[in-house]
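Exercise 7.
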Amino acid sequence: MAMTNQERVGKGLELLRAGLAPYVEREVQEAVRAGAVNMETVRRFAEDPMLKNKPIAEWDAAGLLKLMWETWNEVFRKTLGFAERSLVSELREWRNKWAHQDPFSSDDADRALDSMERLLTAVSAPQAAEVNRLKMELRRLVFDEQVRNEKRKAGGSLIEAAASGALKPWREVVTPHPDVASGRYQQAEFAADLWQVHLGQGSEEYQNPAEFFRRTFLTESLKRLLVGAVQRLSGTGGDPVVQLQTNFGGGKTHSMLALYHLFGGAAAADLAGVEAVVAGAGGEGLARGGRGGVGGEENLRGKTQGEAGR
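Solution. The predicted structure, written as tokens, is:
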């Protein structure tokens, strides 16, 4: 699951705590030995009462940042500058926002992580590298989203844009069928209807065997179906029963129409691609067989599906 900005900042605060704790404890102990501050005063700065009796190395990020802020002049000004003091103040705000479950935009998360990394780098904490990785991962995600948005605005992909100089527009490569180009195309006529063809009422491209095969691209699956049918009727093989299973629009009706026209009496030479089917079946021509078709329930003249199937 993708990490949210809230989770990303929380992970950064864990790394910030782990990196600051040894440094803060070391500097405070040195200041105590020098008499610049005493431990009783230090413990009063712990926001969580539970932290007062714990070593500084076990304090959370909020406690460490508050301690750095409150004892800056006595302890941390000797090793850090004004820029780091500003980072401490800023990070206290980010931590409070995170603790109150406020939303973090990508810009907010980036700023918070960048400030954590800078402060960790200033104290030579190795956790700075891991915070940097979190920050750069966030920036990559933001960049990827920006690229996707630009693609959507452009109405296509950058790959299409890059290739447009080398590829011709599709309308210069293929010519639409006249009924499509002229606007006379009717989707209802384009849908194959086996029952209408059987009654002699189908459109020309489905009713006429030669026109049907001229417009049909014989895929490998359709070729296998037709070859098997030729072999079955010629007594050389083929399956007696074929069950067509495809998704809606997968070509079941078109396959049945191909079988219907294949054995309608037309010569193989008159049907585009059929000579190759006959050759694949090992035959010399097409056998003419009896054809039958059953349409939808509305065409069964009162018969039930069970009666029609027998």
